[in-house]
Amino acid sequence: MADLLNRATTTRISDNIRGAHWLKLITNLNNALPALIDGTFHQVYADPFLASLAIRVMREGLNASRKAGIRLESLPDVSVGLTRLINFLPVKLAAKVAAARVGRMKTPWPLLGSTLQSLRRNRPTEIDYLNGEVVELGKKTGTPTPLNARIVELVHQVEQTGTFFNVDEVRRKFLHVGQVGL
């Protein structure tokens, strides 16, 4: 199977598919942020509040997966080490590291994220299978995931109303949730 897939894209075999799945999920948790503001990843990471929120959201996912005993597995474009680094650096510094990484992602099209693309197509989003998965794992392991829970709630609100938020509205929506915005 890998030989066949390698004809189309680089393929790596893993004996830890659960760990690879969770690392990919954790890195995709910030897909919701462009969806909240109808913006790009570059816009999200250019804003200090949103960039810090992205780090805190991923930290909740890392904490829940660690408490569940999931051994994360590196992916071709994302290493476990770099992802874990965001858990140890101060939030603002981790946000700058992530922003620099996003800043190096140059494409001829805007980087929107799949959640925003679904919203723009008036299609259901995968929010329950991204941030919602972290919320569910948090419940099972007793790990607080208030930021991911709020993101699920807000993306569903955008789905239902078709109205996006500006950055100041997002900031207010997260005030006192997991101590973001303090």
Summarize, please.
The chain is an all-alpha fold. It contains eleven helices and no strands.
Instruction: Give the topology string: H per helix, E per strand.
Output: HHHHHHHHHHH
CATH architecture: Orthogonal Bundle
Largest sheet: none
Helix content: 55-70%
CATH topology title: N-(1-d-carboxylethyl)-l-norvaline Dehydrogenase, domain 2
Overall structural domain count: 1
- Broad CATH class: Mainly Alpha
Radius of gyration: 16 Å
Low-confidence stretches: none
Q: Into which percentage range does the β-strand content fall?
A: under 5%
Helix and strand content put the structural class at: mainly alpha
Taking the alpha carbons of the first and last residues, their distance comes to 50 Å
Name the CATH homologous superfamily: N-(1-d-carboxylethyl)-l-norvaline Dehydrogenase, domain 2
What number is the mean pLDDT?
89
User: Which term fits the overall shape?
Assistant: globular
Number of strands: 0
Q: Please count the helical segments.
A: 11
Your description of this structure?
The chain is mainly alpha-helical. The chain has one domain (15-174): N-(1-d-carboxylethyl)-l-norvaline Dehydrogenase, domain 2 (Orthogonal Bundle), CATH 1.10.1040.10. Helix content is 62%, strand content 0%. It is built from 11 helices and no strands. Helix 2 runs antiparallel to helix 5, helix 5 packs across helix 9 and helix 9 (131-141) runs antiparallel to helix 10. It is globular and about 45 Å long. The protein starts with a helix and ends in an 8-residue tail after the last helix.
